[in-house]
Amino acid sequence: MDYGYLNDILILFAAAVAVVVTFLLLRLPPILGYLLVGVVMGPYGLAWIEDTEHARAFAEFGVVFLLFTIGLEFSLTQLIRMKSTVLGLGAAQVLFTTMITAWVAFYLGFPIESALVLGGVVAMSSTALVVRQLTDQVELHSHHGRNAVGILLFQDVMVIPFLILAATPLDTVGDMPLLAVATALGEGVIALVIILALGRWVLRPLFRAIAGFRSAELFMLTALLVAMGSAWITHHMGLSLALGAFVAGMMLGETEFRHQIEAEIRPFRDLLLGLFFITIGMLLNIQLLPELWPQVLLLLVLLLVFKLILIGGLCRVAGWDNAISLRTGLVLAHGGEFGFAILAPVLSGGTWPAESSQVVLAALLISMGIAPLLIRANASIASKLLPQEVMEKSRKEIEAGVAGAAHGLSHHVIICGYGRVGQNVAQLLEFEGINYIALDTNPVLVQNALEAKEPVSYGDAANIHILEAAGLSQAAALVISLTEVETTLKILQQVRQIDTKIPVLVRTADETYLKQLQEAGATEVVPETLEASLMLSSHLLLALDIPMALVLSRIRQIRRERYTLLTQIYPGEELFTVLGDNAERLRAIELPADAWAVECTVGDLGLENIGVTLTAIQRQDERIPNPTQDKRLQAGDTLILFGTPAALEQAETILCVD
Description:
- Helices cover 66% and strands 7% of the residues.
- The protein has helices spanning 5-25, 30-41, 53-73, 76-81, 83-107, 112-123, 127-136, 143-167, 175-212, 216-236, 241-252, 258-282, 289-317, 322-332, 337-349, 354-376, 378-385, 387-405, 420-431, 443-451, 464-469, 485-498, 514-520, 528-543, 548-560, 573-579, 602-605, 645-656; strands spanning 413-416, 436-440, 456-458, 477-480, 504-508, 524-527, 585-590, 613-619, 622-625, 638-643.
- The strands form 2 sheets. Strands 3-2-1-4-5-6 form a 6-stranded parallel β-sheet, sandwiched between helices. Strands 7-10-8-9 form a 4-stranded antiparallel β-sheet, covered by helices on one side.
- Helix 17 (378-385) crosses helix 18.
- 39% of the residues are buried.
């Protein structure tokens, strides 16, 4: 048996690992690395991989699994709500792009059929690339993300008519292509009805039964079977493999198993998508680029600018503002993998000149290489071109989202920061039946919390308008669990300007800013290090058989005194690093026999006047904690003083003078 193809696989994997690691280190999208591997390793580069047909057929399943996971994100209900985007924006984009491109191509001498095929190629954008990049940026469910996905879905459906047109010989063009298209669409409707019926009445009970076996292997196999089976149905009905997978994913997205299925499918999806982009890169003949680069560059610029203006303009006509329209256009301005699929029959049939084919191919490929950069920078580009509108729109959207989440809440708790501490507070509030709303600026965390139906919103709690949208005027308390002290202080200052009575509880890492936070208006400040000391000490005292009532009384006293006792510590090297050189600390000073303080009482010293506290007296083997004002000092006593370095220096000078 010939295992020569293993060499190709090993070369691809080795090159992909090396290039993708390099791109990740450079903070560039891995997709660009995959495309580069295909260009360099393919038959027109180093020719290390010559037989690309098997790899290309295998790689198509990457798009299948991608569309399947997209379907998991978009339920049937959501798709119905998006019908205006899919059938409105999507149809208009494909129609106008195709017609304008075809008219220009026909004017340049292309036959009408070839001009229409070229129009279909230009109309396509990369579903695989856009969805993956928007998902990584947590923008898939934003306004421009939903617009892009809606347009892409219509593009995916229209691939079939363009494929039929591209595969039809020129001398048979007449009524047959229209009949073939109508037949394919009719069969496609039947396929979709079958998948929808199976999804509604079969998939949910099937996965419940499979889950009952508690076998991860069986669950994964069933998920793969459903994805591939639905793709097979649409393929045999004349539609694309990816469309069937999308509908199946959409059906499973209605079930409680969507997250588990997505986790099982993800490794296959990412691996095969990488292989797909490698095979796309293999199609480019880089040997012709030195001669064709002016045409390639011109077509590339025309493609990006034309699609950006057209899609942005259609979004404006549909009622979206300039910022969302611009961001949608930036996301979809490039070419796509289905454009290569439409172009493939033309390339293999030789109906286009080789140079023209390579110009189109190179422009599409380079546009896909640029696309991740455009998608990643869509927000910053829009902010630079439309700064005021983007900021105002973003602020209003965030405030509206927070206000919607807080609608109807009264006497609730606002949690600023939904990290580990914030989530623990929220769980305890939920146990007690107390309503709350949490704010955080980590988009991934917020997205995960929203998927779990938690009352969490994206918003900067340091913005008083966000807090007001969260119902600050009706709230019972405010909890700040952020790690950034500057942000916490800003929140306290703004809240206290409009509400001096609401309890504000603040979490901080240590006692560094304890007094500053208290002075800024915090009702209670909870330093983690001090609370950890209290808990450890209380358990220790209980283990030493100290009565529970006495332990609780001591802890309450320490908290009532704002952790004064626990903040009196001796400095170490790490203390200077954390607290700074001017932080208060303990210092031991021994009284010489000739010091004036000998035989004086503690009250006579007047240490409180210079900001120093006498915490204890060590007298030979006896230790006297918190000495009273009438306690007399003796020669050889060691005084344990607490204060700033400057105050301690002054106290030592006063005490030890003769």
